[in-house]
Design goal:
Chain B: One of its GO terms (biological process) is RNA polymerase I assembly. Chain B: GO terms for molecular function: unfolded protein binding. Chain B: InterPro entries: PFD_alpha_archaea, Prefoldin, Prefoldin_subunit_alpha. The complex is a heterodimer. The two termini of chain A are 17 Å apart. In chain A, a hairpin with a 2-residue loop joins strand 1 (58-62) and strand 2 (65-69). Chain A is rod-shaped and about 80 Å long. Chain A has one domain: Helix Hairpins. Chain A has helices at 3-51, 71-121; strands at 58-62, 65-69. Chain A is built from two helices and two strands. By secondary structure, chain B is of the alpha+beta class. The chains are: A mainly alpha, B alpha+beta. The A-B interface holds A 38, 41-42, 44-45, 48, 52, 56-62, 66, 69, 74, 78, 81 and B 86, 88-97, 105. Strand 1 (58-62) of chain A pairs antiparallel with strand 4 of chain B, so a sheet runs across the interface.
């Protein structure tokens, strides 16, 4: 096999890997935005819990049924959720950053291979 | 931003210009979609206020309502208690609220959404103006 063919094969392999990285990257970005929306919603609920009167009744929607809930318990639940979601967002952010770095690396490799390939063709 | 970056758009080959255009198309579409969704949510909250106004202060004997079983079938009913309503505050939690409190809650939501809508509208207009400049550029290039 000629050197050019080998280079081309390598190039194709790298491009494939790059595309996979891109796919995973956009998946991470979209799940981050979903989590951010959830965080916003939970924060709003928390704000509402902080503002209500003590005698107000809290219900939770379980399936189609409204169930009465203990207020402190519900508030604690929301706080816990906020904590969890914030943690998840942090985790995803780290992941996104590492994907960005990996993509950058791959891009460099591809450019290098491409130049080599062009030269071989000539 | 592409417009003030080091890359001069006039120097880009037509193909890349097309890619930039597609990206902006997508962005504007996304923004317009978000705008429509926010608007919808705002209408929903306004409707809730309207309904509260309707039942607020109804005296005994004026509590008759028609309850929809389907969108075209109703049965007559009577409101048992109009002093309190249950409000959905998000993530599956509901809270008992007096009618004035509930109205305040929805009013805050509507104002919050209006602020967001105004900001979004501004962004959309901005993007569209940027986009117009690029489109004429692409058009010019195609003629050359």
């Amino acid at each position: 096999m000629s050197v050019a063919a080998v280079t081309q094969q390598q190039l194709e392999k790298q491009v494939g890997e790059f595309q996979n990285l891109q796919k995973e990257y956009s998946k991470a970005v979209s799940s981050r935005s979903t989590l951010e929306a959830q965080l916003k919603e939970n924060e709003m609920v928390k704000k509402e819990f902080d503002n209500i009167k003590d005698d107000a009744t809290v219900y939770k929607l379980i399936g189609p049924v409204l169930v009465k809930q203990d207020r402190p318990e519900a508030a604690a639940n929301v706080n816990k959720r906020i904590e969890y979601i914030s943690g998840e967002i942090k985790r995803l952010e780290a992941q996104i950053k590492s994907f960005e770095e990996k993509q950058e690396q791959k891009k460099m490799e591809i450019v290098k291979l491409q130049t080599a390939f062009e030269q071989l063709k000539q | 931003m592409a417009s003030d970056g080091p890359i001069n758009l006039a120097d880009l080959p037509l193909q890349q210009l097309q890619a930039v255009k597609n990206q902006m198309d997508e962005e504007i579409q996304h923004l317009t979609q978000s705008y429509a969704q926010l608007k919808q949510a705002q209408v929903k909250f306004s409707d809730s206020i309207e309904s509260l106004n309707n039942i607020d202060g109804r005296k005994d004997g004026k509590k008759n309502v028609l309850i929809p079983l389907t969108s075209s079938l109703y049965v007559p009913g009577t409101l048992a208690d109009v002093s309190k309503v249950i409000v959905d505050i998000g993530t599956g939690y509901m809270i008992d609220k007096s009618i004035p409190d509930a109205k305040d809650f929805y009013k805050t939501k509507v104002t919050f959404l209006r602020e967001n809508l105004d900001g979004l509208q501004e962004t959309i207009t901005q993007r569209e103006n940027q986009y117009k400049g690029k489109r004429s550029l692409a058009w010019l290039r195609r003629r050359n």
